[in-house]
Amino acid sequence: MRTPFLFAALALCLGCGIKRIPQTILDKLPYEAKIELLESENDLALAVDRLDEARAEVNRTRDQIRRAKDRYSAAKSEVSAAQDQLSREVAELAVLEADARVEWLRARQRVNVREETLADQALTCAMARYEETRLAAARKAKLEGSEDYDPARFKQQVADCDAEYTALKEKLKETNTEAEGVRAEWEKARAALAKKTFDARASPFVE
Fold it and tell me: What is the DSSP string of 18-78?
């Protein structure tokens, strides 16, 4: 049994509204029945990992936005400090590129937040499937108290969770499409700056 992952999943899924089978019913589950739960436990572990990574990406992009704002402020200072026409033109292009970079990162962060929400829902669904599997194992083993839980209700909560996941996935697609449009604008600004400076002032990487 992957206890650490299960504890992590339970902690992350607090308040997710999933109906659970009391552990007191499952304490006498035979070993061979516990083996049948491994696939569901593995799915839970993967769901926890995906949610952790999604949250980490939100934090990484938040730092990138902060650095991009600093870059924008520095570019604006260059405009004021420019002492010739060429320097001013380069500085003004740098301001446009930096501003477009910030907007792209903000758009990407909206995607990240959607992905975090989707990963959170995926964990909820994995938990719902896990509970459905646990109930099936308990009833198969004829554990006392398991007959009080209706399998149809557990199956329905999986179906409801999957439906919500599908809806969230569609919203993510929309946000991705919007973000790609913003990225295209940043790419145009970056290309203009690169052309003016012979590639010296436009990193292809989002910093």
Answer: -----HHHHTT--HHHHHTTHHHHHHHHHHHHHHHHHHHHHHHHHHHHHHHHHHHHHHHHH
Supply the CATH classification number for the domain 31-196: 1.20.1270
Q: State how far Cα 78 lies from the chain centre.
A: 37
Query: Where would I find the H helices in the chain?
Result: 3-12, 23-26, 31-35, 38-81, 85-140, 151-196
Instruction: Tell me the pLDDT tens digit for each residue of 14-62.
Output: 556 889 999 999 988 999 888 989 999 999 999 999 999 999 999 999 9
| Residue-level length of the chain | 207
Instruction: Give the Å distances, CA to CA, from 8 to 34, 44, 49, 120.
Output: 19, 9, 10, 13
Domain boundaries, the chain: 31-196
Whether 40 contacts 130, CB under 8 Å: yes
